[in-house]
């Protein structure tokens, strides 16, 4: 987590004459800090972020908490790794002006505190409970680097279309469970800009979970429990899978593993099949499979088919009627879970005060915008075609004469902003306003009843 830093830097001038935009013709496809002035000035959806973080409290309804947005923590990462923690803003214009002025390389969003985080020092003498987080979205962070032991096309921060299905699996599994098992409705999935995805669960009941409750939700999803020294990194105990795990396996994991990962990662190639054999706790079966696969090596079978062929052999041996031990029959599922099941950063989800990068930031390493992902169509998402900062500014340059009120609408960012508004923000705010009205009526009724005594 970024450390607290109070010192800022010189103000940055953002307003530039139109001729400056026109001079940007063929922009190199890489991150350039100078482009951020134009991005924050022309494309970043300041008003939408404000409306989201206000959760309906910016209205005129008497039940609105006008202090709500002002108690939200924002963190700015500036050039040279300067961190500005505990930033807070009283209005949409205050937030927009600060972002335009400082041009942060990254914007992180923290919790809503009991008091204005920028004034926390004034409450330092009052005790530990005065300045404390009181509300925060339930968040999940899934990073591709946590899958480096099961992907062979890339490593570290690199991603490609062969390993990206691991993120698609995570979105499908978690989104379905969060909705069906926990009853959440307002869920936002966001591309991290480089190598993973973030999830924001924004229902009121999710935002008000305490740390213990968040840990319980996160633990519900925890199946991957091994380490680099473990052969079996997943242990599915019991005679039958938990309904959530069974549904995830049947509807998502099995299909993606067999249709995508086996071949794209060459999981049962001659160089890699020993890793899977090590996960089978029966030396007789592993010896039998090894012998069959060494024979396969000498056959004329097409290389792209050998992974599927060997997987079918493995399933037949482990799940045939001869194998009475439940552990052996369950071993096929354990292999699939080990390679394909979501690997969540548990600490991010457990604590209310954890910071998470705001949507629509630009990743400084790739120049790509952190755009929302539609979970209903996440299989179509391609991280390699996400708009880059240079591409967007080139599109602005080309469309200056035709751009309307929203300049992002004439760029490749337009679809992402429209999705954010229509599919996430509008239903969320409708729900928030209904809750504010319902809570206000309930408080009035309670007050009336207390007076009647």
From TrEMBL:
Entry cofactors: Mn(2+); Mg(2+)
A molecular-function term among this protein's GO annotations: DNA-directed RNA polymerase activity
Matching Pfam families: DNA_primase_S (PF01896)
One record GO biological process: DNA replication, synthesis of primer
Keyword Transferase: yes
One Gene Ontology CC term in the entry: alpha DNA polymerase:primase complex
Keywords annotated in UniProt: DNA replication, DNA-directed RNA polymerase, Metal-binding, Nucleotidyltransferase, Primosome, Transcription, Transferase, Zinc
EC number per UniProt: 2.7.7.-
Family statement drawn from the similarity comment of this UniProt entry: Belongs to the eukaryotic-type primase small subunit family.
Protein name: DNA primase
